[in-house]
UniProtKB/TrEMBL annotation:
<dbReference type="InterPro" id="IPR000713">
    <property type="entry name" value="Mur_ligase_N"/>
</dbReference>
<dbReference type="InterPro" id="IPR013221">
    <property type="entry name" value="Mur_ligase_cen"/>
</dbReference>
<keyword id="KW-0132">Cell division</keyword>
<keyword id="KW-0961">Cell wall biogenesis/degradation</keyword>
<dbReference type="InterPro" id="IPR005758">
    <property type="entry name" value="UDP-N-AcMur_Ala_ligase_MurC"/>
</dbReference>
<protein>
    <recommendedName>
        <fullName>UDP-N-acetylmuramate--L-alanine ligase</fullName>
        <ecNumber>6.3.2.8</ecNumber>
    </recommendedName>
</protein>
<dbReference type="Pfam" id="PF08245">
    <property type="entry name" value="Mur_ligase_M"/>
</dbReference>
<keyword id="KW-0573">Peptidoglycan synthesis</keyword>
<comment type="function">
    <text>Cell wall formation.</text>
</comment>
<dbReference type="Pfam" id="PF01225">
    <property type="entry name" value="Mur_ligase"/>
</dbReference>
<comment type="similarity">
    <text>Belongs to the MurCDEF family.</text>
</comment>
<keyword id="KW-0133">Cell shape</keyword>
<comment type="pathway">
    <text>Cell wall biogenesis; peptidoglycan biosynthesis.</text>
</comment>
<keyword id="KW-0067">ATP-binding</keyword>
<keyword id="KW-0436">Ligase</keyword>
<dbReference type="InterPro" id="IPR036565">
    <property type="entry name" value="Mur-like_cat_sf"/>
</dbReference>
<keyword id="KW-0131">Cell cycle</keyword>
Length: 451
């Protein structure tokens, strides 16, 4: 694939966060960009407004005529989340197009650039956004492909004048093995995506393989305690090469000191909340300092960082109600979100609304979900969001509820959940999940504020 030859790009599954970033990238280069996705979202609306043509009908008749014959100037990208029986996917296969995964295209884009790749079963989106913001705000600059919408820049792809590119390295379907970074961060390696990997040892093996692909002279930066060889470590609780110390909450904001072997940065205000985000900030700071960002510029940039959409995002924050929305969909992500909310607001009763994501993940981690959700004072449980999966006998959200000790728990539909919030108006609400629970955010905000 010669990127300089590409004039037309079609993305099958264009509405995904990673795919939409590529769509924006090629649109920025002046290519004709089209695509298909199953459902319309705010993100697909934004892409449409940026001049990208999208169909929501999986029908080969919806493919524009200039994408009917393969040639060197036409690129077809697909996401592994698209079903194998997709009519549009099969149309391109039948026509003789060579199909590229999103990760393969990202590998080609990044291969000639200084690449900072951020991997991990959780924490990678916020950490990659932090690295990109530290480089942008300090003037060193970078381009970036992010796994979420940066609140500072209101997009998931950034364009810069330097040769540095920051990419989120996704472990799903072993996608990150297309990357050969100069700097790699690994934030976590908890068991996940067992539908792909089979067991945790296979996942661990893939992360070690990813780490082995760092270019000669490059560096691995990883959380202290991960089963990885070599590299530099970071932590907020243990001794490591880079650490956060003196962590405290003042007037509802998190402060900490950063220290590594060479540098001490005192009294850093982090623009977003959460102990897990301080950990992410330590990793990002370690990278930024290595790339020439000054300690003072780090401190300024971390204070101005406003986070990522759906990552510990404040929806309502006033004297009567606090409402935070988070993408957490793995037990350890939930633990981090719930623990951070309780640390910030220890005197308030916490209502959690959770939408499990995937039947396989619910089956594999039902005990872990039950244990973590027991940390709430009240739970509203939605049905499982299936995404790409078919139902599994005996696996539903009741499976988690049945294992919980918390007495104040309810199973409810989406409309019922909105009514409950409208009537009961909880003082502290946390919505969590990676499915379509984000579509409830605005209705829940209205229900809390206006009834």
């Amino acid at each position: 694939m010669e990127l300089s030859n590409i004039k037309r790009v079609y993305l099958v599954g264009i509405g995904g966060i990673g795919m939409s970033g590529l769509a924006r990238y090629f649109c920025h280069l002046g290519c004709i960009v089209c695509g298909y996705d199953k459902t319309a979202t705010d993100l697909t609306s934004d892409l449409h407004n940026e001049g990208i043509r999208i169909t929501f009908d999986d029908n080969e008749g919806c493919v524009p005529l200039n994408f009917h014959e393969p040639d060197d100037s036409t690129l077809i990208i697909y996401t592994p989340a698209i079903p194998k029986d997709s009519a549009i996917l099969n149309f391109f296969t039948r026509k003789g197009f060579k199909l590229f995964k999103r990760s393969q295209v990202l590998g080609v884009i990044s291969q000639s650039r200084f690449t900072v790749a951020v991997a991990g079963t959780h924490g990678k989106t916020t950490t990659s956004c932090l690295v990109a913001h530290l480089l942008k705000a300090s003037g060193i600059d970078c381009s970036a492909f992010l796994g979420g919408i940066s609140s500072n820049y209101q997009t998931n792809v950034l364009f810069g004048d330097s040769n540095i590119v920051v990419v989120e390295a996704d472990e799903y379907d072993r996608s990150f093995l297309t990357l050969h970074p100069d700097v790699a961060i690994i934030t976590s390696m908890d068991a996940d995506h067992l539908d792909i990997y089979g067991d945790h040892s296979q996942l661990t093996e893939s992360f070690n393989l990813f780490a082995s692909q760092i270019k000669e002279g490059g560096v691995l930066i990883h959380k202290q305690g991960l089963p990885l060889l070599g590299g530099r470590t970071y932590s907020i609780t243990n001794e490591a090469d880079a650490v956060a110390q003196n962590i405290r909450i003042e007037n509802g904001s998190f402060y900490f000191d950063f220290r590594n072997g060479d540098t001490l940065i005192s009294d850093i205000l982090l623009g977003i909340a959460g102990l897990h985000n301080i950990e992410n900030a330590v990793a990002a700071t370690e990278v930024a300092l290595r790339l020439g960002v000054s300690p003072d510029a780090v401190k300024t940039a971390l204070a101005s960082f406003t986070g990522v959409k759906r990552r510990f995002e404040y929806i309502v924050k006033n004297d009567e109600h606090i409402y935070i929305d988070d993408y957490a969909h793995h037990p350890e992500e939930l633990r981090a979100a719930i623990a951070s909310v309780k640390k910030l607001y220890p005197a308030k009763k916490l209502t959690v609304m959770f939408q499990p994501h995937l039947f396989t993940r619910t089956r594999d981690f039902a005990d872990g979900f039950a244990e973590v959700l027991d940390m709430a004072d009240e739970l509203l449980m939605l049905d499982i969001y299936p995404a790409r999966e078919q139902p599994i006998d005996g696996v539903d959200s009741e499976l988690i509820l049945s294992k919980m000790k918390l007495w104040n728990k309810r199973k409810c539909g989406k409309e019922e959940a909105i009514e409950i919030i409208k009537n009961e108006k909880p003082e502290l609400l946390l919505t969590v999940g990676a499915g379509d629970i984000d579509q409830l955010v605005q209705p829940l905000k209205q229900a809390l504020q206006h009834g």
